[in-house]
Model the fold of this input.
Amino acid sequence: MASFEPILTRHIHREDSHTLSGYKNVGGYKALEKMFKTMAPDEVIEEVNASNLRGRGGAGFPTGVKWGFIPKDSHKPTYLICNADESEPGTFKDRLLLNKTPHMMLEGMIISSYAIDCHLAFIYIRGEFYQEHKILEKAVEEAYATNLLGNDILGSGFDLEVVIHRGAGAYICGEEMGLIESLEGKRGWPRIKPPFPAIEGYLRCPTIVSNVETLACLPHILNRGADWFKSIGSEKGSGPKLYCISGRVNNPGVYEEPLGILLTDLIFKRGGGLIDGRELKAVFPGGSSSAILRADEIDGLRMDFDSLSAAKTMLGSAGIIVMDETVDMVSVCLNIARFYAHESCGQCTPCREGTTWLVKILNRIYQGNGSLNDIDMIFEITDNIGGLIDFSKGSFGKTICPFGEAVAWPIRSFVEKFKDEFIAYVAKGVEVS
Ligand SMILES: Cc1cc2nc3c(=O)[nH]c(=O)nc-3n(C[C@H](O)[C@H](O)[C@H](O)COP(=O)(O)O)c2cc1C
Ligand code: SF4
Done:
């Protein structure tokens, strides 16, 4: 594993990393000064485009391209929303940034706002992040007190207000359209796309929604240039990446490495290998919404958007959950089905009803009362929620938002890849009765 110097987490072990002075002492807000002195908004967009930065919230969409979608001739205001709702199981990277270096994300928000001509930005923070909310409030206060926010920031003539909004504990409010509805004071029900938020988002005005980690990359891109950023990782994805490793590993935690690092390096080197020297059975590479990979599928697999999609899964939130040989796949599958049934917003029939049926059927199998028909039924239901999963044809999507696929893909992958375990549960039940 080649040596790599952390960029986003380099100073997080300093006691004062979360304060304004702590951030400034290590070069914080220098990118902002440079930008105001030397760059027009279009030049910022060009630089970010050239850096090949792709969103870190899950979908991996290029940030500069998204900015470019904002209509040039719009008479409406433009908004920026920082998505700090982080609720994907197995994911805790944004939380680290919010806790340890909130000013890096704030600096990114000011840079992004300047680029898209936004003068009112929001931070939508997960309701359960109580401590992070307190830290963020203090950071925003410090920024206002030192003219990093407010009117005529650092004498640049640019104005920006930032408002923090706390969520109320709904996973679906991390989905950008659900988040926007919630921010508008409504029930967090995702809207159909298109129109995408860059055209019609908050209050039906052009809105950019960006993940915490994405925004935290921006100061570094302006400070050190697009070419430097692009030189990290591979052509398939540039820059540093925060990976969350949890489950049956010796050293769970958040690790910063380049995009495109080998999954095996993350599990066996950074994660310290499996507890008690056990055998690897399977892994979620990108949170519980990604299809699982069996141990025999991960050799040589790189953690970037394209390599994982070629492996019929996704980088998603980079929440790597490691399962060892002792893990009962039927039980884990039931557990995640319960999560999705609980978190479905209930707008679309296939998602609302399908997730409930999946729990009932999986529970039946788990309790030893299932049949082989139940296993086929899981495939049918997941097809109905998430579309027929044929990645070569791109044939998926039957619901208003991608939550449908986020349920269908992992559940289907459990049954497809560990069918024998589901059959064994059915057989056990038959023996007992
Ligand atoms: C069900 C669901 C939950 C999501 N939760 C989050 C989340 O907690 N945080 C996040 O940044 N993106 C989340 N996303 C992705 C957002 O919709 C959006 O793509 C992202 O915030 C855009 O930021 P980026 O371009 O920086 O990645 C979620 C998507 C779905 C479908
Ligand atoms: S797919 Fe599920 S979560 Fe998304 S809008 Fe439909 S019901 Fe709601």
